[in-house]
Amino acid sequence: MMNDYAAYLTVAQQAARDAGAFLKQRFGCIQQVDESLAHDVKLRLDKEAQMLITRHLLAAFPESSVLGEEGNSGRQDAEFLWIVDPIDGTVNYFYGIPIFCVSIALQHRGRLVMGCVYDPMQQECFSAIAGGAALLNGMPITVSARSRMAEAIVFIGHGTHDGSGEVGIRRFAHISRQVRKIRILGSAALTLCYIAAGRFDAYVEGRICLWDFAAARVILETAGGSLEFEPQEEDAARGAIIAWNGRLPLHEALKLDSNA
Ligand code: IPD
Ligand code: CA
Ligand code: CA
User: Fold this and answer.
1) How many CB atoms lie within 10 A of CB 70?
2) Ligand 1 atom closest to Cα of 40?
3) For the segment 59-108, what is each residue's pLDDT rounded down to a tens digit?
């Protein structure tokens, strides 16, 4: 079964590398802002990178469809559905912080089977086919062996939407007392890949979208990690996430006591 998806992975990697080169070339230049929100920006480049990726994917697999942050192509109930985030970490990109990536997942008959996440600044390509090995630039990676919160590095997003901020900030304070370090990278996909590679140990965020984590989920789970996603009632593509190396007592650590 694994080899069936190898051709899809090759094309996803080519698309991610091309989009990554496109973004790297324009990094640090003045960007056209399509939309400026309180806690986010949308760049013209988000759309251009998605178009570039979509062209690649559909040229190689015309029967497949694309679900992307910047728009969809084809039937969303297609047998093969690509899930694309052309820039994960747009705010970083816009501010000249070189931490962002291109994320491409493949869903086959509703199941995530392949993920590719490319960081053009570090030239790091994370990939996995479910049931195979998780790779970084072709070399196997695995989650960390750390099992105590006291030695963990945890990414914790405290959320900016729908009143989730308050709980998030309490949780942030609560967790930060227990761990070695807190880090906030600004890219959900890269964070999950860093857990897959044993660099980080856990990730907690109140609200992210399917395209933020689809590809990295395959990579993380293949590398031995765990991920739980709790979709929102009103929109199943958005929800809360916890992800970890599968060894830390994360559920326990997250429990807020009344004084937290
Ligand atoms: C964002 C990043 C960020 C996460 C946000 C995402 P974008 O994606 O992954 O780390 O905290 O929830 O929306 O907007 O840069 O593609
Ligand atoms: Ca994203
Ligand atoms: Ca994005």
Assistant:
1) 22
2) 14
3) 999 999 999 999 999 999 999 999 999 999 999 999 999 999 999 999 99
**Ligand 1 atom closest to Cα of 91?**
15
- C-alpha to C-alpha distance for 233 and 105, rounded to whole angstroms: 23
Ligand 3 centre and the CA of 174: distance in Å?
Answer: 29
Residues 6 or more apart in contact with residue 110 via CB below 8 angstroms: none
* Closest CA to ligand 1's atom 2: 187
Are 163 and 250 in the same domain?
yes
Q: What predicted TM-score, i.e. pTM, was given to this entire model?
A: 0.95
In short, whether 46's Cβ falls inside 6 Å of ligand 1 is: no
- 135 and 59 assigned to the same domain: yes
- Our count of domains for the chain comes to 2
Q: For residue 156, give its domain range.
A: 149-254
Single residue among 78, 107, 140 that ends a domain in this structure: 140
- Mean pLDDT over all residues of the chain? 93
Ligand 1, atom 16, lies closest to the CA of 88
d(CA 253, CA 24): 38
Asked whether residue 77 falls in the same domain as residue 159, the answer is: no
Q: Is the CB of 103 under 6 A from ligand 1?
A: no
Per-residue pLDDT averaged across 139-154, rounded? 98
121 and 181 inside one domain: no
State the Cα–Cα distance between residues 55 and 91, nearest whole angstrom: 25
Ligand 1 neighbourhood includes 18 CB (under 6 angstroms)? no
Residues 120 and 243 in one domain: no
